[in-house]
What does this fold into?
Amino acid sequence: MMTSTEIRQQFFDFFKKQGHEIVPSAPIVIKNDPTLMFTNAGMNQFKDYFLGNKKPPFLRVADTQKCLRVSGKHNDLEEVGVDTYHHTMFEMLGNWSFGDYFKKEAIAWSWELLTEVYKIDKGKLYVTVFEGDPKDALPKDDEAFNEWKKWIPESRILFGNKKDNFWEMGDTGPCGPCTEIHVDCRSDEERKTVDGKKLVNQDHPQVIEIWNNVFIQFNRLKDGTLDALPARHVDTGMGFERLVRVLQHKQSNYDTDVFTGTISVIKNITRQSELVFIQPTSKQSIAVRVIADHIRAIAFAISDGQLPSNTGAGYVIRRILRRAVRYYFTHLNFKEPLLFQLIPIISQQFENVFPELAQQKEFVAKVVKDEEESFLRTLDKGLKRIGFLIDHSIQRNSSTGTISGKEAFELFDTYGFPLDLTKLIASENSMSVDEAGFEVEMSQQKNRSRSASVLDTEDWITLIENPINEFVGYDSLQVKSKVVKYRKIKTKGKEAYQIVLQATPFYAESGGQVGDVGELTINGEKIKIVDTKKENNLTIHFSDTLPADLTGEAIAKVDFSKRQSTAIHHSATHLLHAALRKVLGTHVAQKGSLVNDEHLRFDFSHFTKVTDEEIKKIEEIVNEKIRENIRVIIKEMTIDEALKLGAMALFGEKYGDVVRVVMIDPNYSIELCGGTHVGATGELGYFKITHETAVAAGVRRVEALSGKAVENYIEEQFDSVRRIRELLKNPKDISKTIEDTIIENAGLKRKIDSFEAKQLLLVKYQLLQMVQKISGINFIGEIIEAANPEDLKKLCFDLKHELPDHVVVLAANLEGKAVVALMIDERISADKNLDASKIIKESISPLIKGGGGGQKTLATAGGQDTSNLRSVIDKVKSLFQ
Ligand code: SER
It folds into this structure.
């Protein structure tokens, strides 16, 4: 039996023989595409080749792509684990033609590979072909049908509708008719009784699709129409885990060697008896499958740079992780972090195909463990709460019920239950969740803390067909160009525009470096470019206005001084990165970066705080390199050459075959980088770290300044020291003088406190002289001088034991504010049924235009009006007379 590794290799070997270049998987996390968070198909990384935005380096390529289908158009999450052939993360084997071969070759090769190389029984295969669609004015795919007829009897070729046989990446983007290959894995007897043809695309667990060949011919626009592409392409995707299952003759993907290693580790750690797994539908069997599946999605997403978080792609990862935790907590009765213990086996298994995980395995495990610990802290309470809600709802309705939007939101907000987890638990109890209600609660919360921007885009208006969007901004900051296309967008409720130029000097935000700003002049009309971003590989310029005429010659000019300061911070980031690795160790890897004209921010893996001495050492190294005035050498080369040179491979970045390498002393810093840099390090002037903090488990953040920004910073620091010096009358030793002043102040404060205490004692004795006897009560009512409201209370306390049967009301004017304290002896309060707190609230607060409260025996009030203090005392007195 072939191992999964051998099966993958045979795929590569086969397509290499047909002239394909084998390329690495793109990261599972997508950075520059507003329509997608994760790679959901092998074709994502090639989207620009299909759309004609970019020229491919090879016309035929093949690869295995890490994909994640948990959100958007392609979402398989709910099937995972319940069935045996859907996954969150899966590998998609693909072969691609960029305007090269088409249906004939693609169909012939897929047949040859499956039946000749992998030797799948021809009698078990079915294929489907697109039947056409009148709404989109698409004809039946006769071409594919005729090609298939060469290989497979007509009776095994089925026609399918748009849902199954017209593949689209998302709501918009490249698409086209497809032909799918299905395999019938049932036993011979079963196949005799029911014709496999009837089970194709019927969700039968043994009659499954393994390969989809898409013939990309169109671009779906926002308005729903199809635009024919300039060339025709092939995009194929074969589910690797399913293929392995077929070739290893298993009933389930989870019984193949892709998963068995992980599953046996899960079983060992959770100490389950094998008996509970006899039934593939038992809770334990499902739990083990879910965990074995989810940990792969989590591990590869984190190693590609996506940390779990509360928003966007980070929240998708957190949701998957929490779902997995709940499965082991409830169904495997395991109450400690488990997932992180699976990282070693997975990283080892994929070391040769996806090395990025093995190279960061300690970091990934640490992040996962931390996430698990944090969710386990509230999970138990949350499960009790949802259990209670379910029980009550069942009691209330006697049959099935619904978890309300408010309740689901409480579970989300207080116990960290993602909505899909609540839905899952509800459905296990035959209940549903009011999702619309949840969304209402959620949007109310969002409204409360609104910062998210809504981006609504219209279709592009194209002025020049099939252009090259070339970035020339490494060498020039001003060029003559032309507008290729533009569109209106809405962001944060405001209208704005996106413009694409034929050639542009504007650097689009990427690799942490912010997008350039500057000006665009067309026919003498100047508009401001406020930002530049990448969408796939197109450089998009953002502006708030459009010139009247967009067809003329456009002069695109970057703001030079901002760009220069940004380049300084980018080069400083490279110097910093290398220094961090020298001082802290080679485990330091970039986890995030921001570079702009004002400062730099660098996030990296490291487990403890960077000490002051380490920071000093890092600064020393960087400043040393600045003084050496090293020339920055930038070269393009193949990724292999770059790695041979010792370049740091930054995971989570997507590289083509040729990479840009930035060298600052080949023995010091070599990085793959698309950013803009200085000519020599001397331009940085000086480097200073201003902050060091933690951002997430195992990730530290350093903020630093260089160039003009550090000059400004030092100027400010000097200024404030100068001001302090002047205030202190230019002492010789400034810190000694400040220290002395602090000590002197503390002494003065002590003196004042003791003076005030003595004063208070004096007042107390005076008050005791002023006791009036009113119907058996010792009454004191006086306006006194006090330093703060506490004094009044303190006096009351002091009088309490020296004066039986007392009623004391003290009032003071504290710098224009009225304060009152009222104390009534406990017995008197009971006898007369008079409550100090009530008197304060009802009779006194209105007199001083304020409020207060307290206990039956002691209450206080404060107010704005000091003119009635005498009346306050008279009022109290009258109540007791
Ligand atoms: N794009 C197609 C799919 O994802 C084939 O690769 O199924």
Observations:
- The first strand starts at residue 21 and ends at 22.
